[in-house]
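Quick check before the chapter quiz. The format below is the same one you will see on the exam, so make sure you can read both the input and the output lines.
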Amino acid sequence: MSYIQKAVDTINIEIEGLQAVKNAIDSNFDKIVDAVMKCSGKVVITGMGKSGLIGQKIAATLSSTGTASFFMHPGEALHGDLGMISPDDIVILISYSGETEELLVLLAALEKQKNTTCSITGNPESTLAKNTLFHLNGHVPVEACPLKLAPTASTTAALALGDALAMALMYARDFKAEDFAKFHPGGSLGRKLLVEVKDVMRRNDLPFVPENISNTDLLIKMSEGKLGLAIIGDSQNVKGVITDGDLRRGIIKYGSFQNMSPVEVMSKNPKTVKENQKLVEVEQMMKKEKITTILIENNAGEITGVFQLF
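Here is the expected output.
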């Protein structure tokens, strides 16, 4: 038996639900965005059950896109965590029925604290919708659940409204990729936009050697450096770089290790990059040039580090 058609039916129902929610967006959406932009506190998201899980995702999306936010479980809020909400915070309450008991009790407490409140429900005539300052209509024609019981299309709709709010706020804040990267320093975007080659380069005990170094001393210095290379010259005047590969090619060319000198087999005028170049740019350049090692220099042209790509 194939269940593909059931999958298609489910997705179609959810698409229809999203279409209905899109058509129901009104001026309340603009008012919520304006209120959040003027807010000096945080955006607190709350909801029970599946709505709570959706709320957690919305809070995470808001936080990572420039709007300080956190999720609060309504049950925990009623037993002490309400103290985490300051009067300057905006609270968004999510309940499809708009009649969730825990949220209604919490709403009464928020009103006493004079918080700005918003709701996302599937019933604009519900208690929650009518008693919050702003309301977003998340009504869907039908749930995808065959029993019409499990939240499916309705939770997708609430999630989409949360995403829409986050994206509108990004636009209002002129939130850029560099801003996003600040909140994701460990991700690929953070690496691309934030990490500079100086952050990862080898900077200590660089294997500088003089031009007239003996082959034996050269090998010792290369072994001590643990980079598989030596830099001929000093930090202010680099003559070249000699690698393990250069040594092997030199032995083949000159017949023996003793018959060659470092300056004869070194790579002259080695490539360098500036310390403040983005790591991803340096990596891309090295791959294109098919090199695994590059020297790093400061603005004065002094060699301050070595970066290797493995």
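If your answer matched, good. Residues 4-24 form the longest helix (21 residues).
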